Amino acid sequence: MRKLKNNELGRITVDEFKVVEKTPIIVVLDNIRSLNNVGSVFRTSDAFLIEKIYLCGITATPPNKDIHRTALGATESVDWEYVEDTLTLIQKLKDSNIKVLAIEQAENSTKLNTFFPEENQKYAIVMGNEVKGVQQEVVSAADGCIEIPQLGTKHSLNISVTTGVVLWDLFQKMM
User: Fold this and answer.
1) In what order do the strands lie in the sheet containing 123-127?
2) Closest to 38 (Cα-Cα) out of 69, 77, 11
3) pLDDT for 149-161, tens place per residue?
4) φ and ψ of 103, to 5 deg
5) Which of 25, 41, 77, 142 could form an SS bridge with 102, CB 3.0 to 4.6 Å?
6) Where are the chain's structural domains?
7) From the CB of residue 51, how many other CB atoms can be counted at a distance below 10 Å?
8) For 13-174, CATH number?
9) Which secondary-structure segment (H or E) carries 80?
10) Would you place residue 1 in the very low, low, confident or very high pLDDT band (cuts 50, 70, 90)?
């Protein structure tokens, strides 16, 4: 077995990415502190052809060398927009018939492994702050909460890991 070189992977160009049909998922970053986490979400969103990323509150925006270091250019391919208030954005998305799912440990949350997206439905997933999680008012406004089942001693996963797990799960269920 031989590792493939980058030029053997058959990846699309940034221009091709801009026009290719996207996975009907939007990522909302609710007050993310770490620039590395932001960059990682961009890179993961590129991998799964995510439609758009909204950067909200204190979440930093490109261009930024620390975001770029982790994103490796994905800030150029994935569409993004800064919105100051997450709650206002959530209402706008819901008004556009996009189902909003907070990724959070909450009462009556749905385990990710038992969640199946509706056909022809666009979703927005809200990822929360590294310490405080998704704001309670945003959780309350969401159409539902998805939780990754965890069995160890820690209370949560890193936001970049959580985003990767959730996007992969939804992506493969939508294919």
Assistant:
1) 80-83, 50-56, 23-30, 123-127, 99-103, 144-147, 110-111
2) 69
3) 999 999 899 999 9
4) -95, 100
5) 142
6) 13-174
7) 18
8) 3.40.1280.10
9) strand 80-83
10) very high
